[in-house]
Known about the structure:
five-stranded antiparallel beta sheet, 3 helices
Amino acid sequence: MAFLEILHFPDPRLRKKATPVDEVNDQVRQTVKDMFETMYDAPGIGLAATQVNIQQQIIVMDVTEDKSRPVCLINPEIVAEDGEEEMQEGCLSVPGVFENVQRAESITVRALDEQGVEITLDADGLLAVCIQHEMDHLDGKLFVDYLSPLKMQRIKKKMLKMKKLDPLESDASPQSANII
Ligand code: NI
């Protein structure tokens, strides 16, 4: 078991694009395990490999309150989407910031699971938002990119100031539900 360090915005490494996983082997499974531990510990409901400085297309999620439904998607690809939905999002890499983002309401995603088996998943609601948010991470994109430049600038300042003061202070947030 290992907790991984989560990168914080505006760390440039969050802008790196992840590459597809060639083979789902034991090393990949260990990464998945570590990512779940890190996500649950944070606590958050989703984590992309990019956030822990691993440039592989791996995301882990669990949107249930009792942590009963871990979902791991490797090389995820959205094959269908429908509708629009706006939901308040937070992110483990942008602690303390919550903003509304518009995304597809329901999606169908194709991916590999931890065993390397191809799966197709239909998702809506929070899970759909979570998958889209995490897939953005793999593409070097953050939810704050959807905000106005002014708002983005303000968040950047806040993050840099927080880092200077006390990095642990950023963990204090009452709204842990949508931190993805
Ligand atoms: Ni995030």
